């Protein structure tokens, strides 16, 4: 009986020490976790490497449905457009570019993916070939009745190449991670002569 009581007492002491240690470790990890480094601010004038893509932001503007490169906007709708030069840095053609730029803007629905159009012929979501810079338009439909913004805030997302992924053992680009923020002035719209109806 006395031995059983001593065993229970030892187990209680060990459990108490273990709990205290766990709380202390969690506190230390929480303190370190709370120290987030500020997100890098990316310059509009510089080329941005995201892993798969090399981006050169060109300009941002608000336009109506008639001048949004043929994107299927709602009748009478307006769009916030970002023109960017993109270069595919990989070895094969790809259109894995929908998640590179995320709008953090109240004028658009940030949860909605943009239409992405090849500017030279208004092709919607084309594959881009390796090493060939192309001018693309990212087109976010604006919320009805929202005043046109004077600036446009974006999060730039990068991916990491793995020779073998953990699930299928195949090569690819994984782990989308924010690499910086980008703010562009919202200026005049496109040259109407260059935009497809």
CATH topology: Immunoglobulin-like
Q: Note poorly predicted spans.
A: 17-22, 28-32
Number of domains: 1
Strand percentage lies at 35-45%
C-alpha Rg (nearest Å): 25 Å
CATH architecture title: Sandwich
Which key features would you list for this structure?
197 residues, 10-stranded mixed β-sheet, 10 strands, 16% helix, 37% strand
Give a verbal description of the structure.
With about 200 residues, the protein is α+β, with helices and mostly antiparallel strands. The chain has a single domain, classed as Immunoglobulin-like (Sandwich). The protein is about 15% helix and about 35% strand. It contains one helix and ten strands, in the order αββββββββββ. Strands 1, 2, 3, 4, 5, 6, 7, 8, 9 and 10 form a ten-stranded mixed beta sheet that branches. β6 and β7 form a beta hairpin. The longest helix has about 30 residues. It is globular. The N and C termini lie far apart (about 90 Å). About 20% of the residues are buried. This is DUF4352 domain-containing protein. Keywords: Membrane, Transmembrane, Transmembrane helix. It comes from Mesorhizobium abyssinicae.
Fold topology:
Elements: H1 2-33, E1 41-42, E2 48-49, E3 53-64, E4 78-88, E5 101-103, E6 115-118, E7 123-124, E8 134-141, E9 151-162, E10 172-187
Parallel strand pairs: 1-10, 3-10
Antiparallel strand pairs: 2-3, 3-4, 4-8, 5-9, 6-7, 6-8, 9-10
């Amino acid at each position: 009986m006395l031995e059983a009581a001593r065993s229970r007492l030892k187990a209680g002491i060990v459990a108490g020490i273990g709990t205290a240690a766990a709380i202390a470790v969690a506190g230390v990890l929480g303190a370190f976790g709370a120290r987030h480094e500020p997100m890098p601010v990316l310059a509009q004038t510089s080329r941005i490497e995201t892993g798969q893509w090399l981006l050169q932001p060109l300009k941002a503007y608000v336009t109506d449905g008639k001048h949004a490169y043929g994107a299927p906007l709602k009748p009478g709708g307006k769009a916030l457009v970002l023109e960017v030069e993109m270069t595919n840095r990989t070895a094969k053609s790809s259109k894995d570019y929908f998640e590179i730029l995320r709008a953090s803007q109240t004028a658009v629905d940030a949860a909605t993916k943009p239409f992405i159009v090849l500017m030279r012929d208004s092709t919607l979501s084309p594959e881009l070939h390796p090493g060939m810079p192309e001018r693309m338009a990212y087109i976010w439909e604006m919320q009805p009745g929202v005043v046109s913004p004077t600036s446009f805030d974006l999060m730039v997302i990068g991916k990491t190449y793995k020779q073998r992924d953990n699930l299928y053992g195949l090569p690819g680009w994984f782990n989308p991670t924010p690499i910086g923020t980008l703010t562009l002035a919202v200026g005049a719209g496109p040259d109407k002569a260059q935009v497809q109806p």
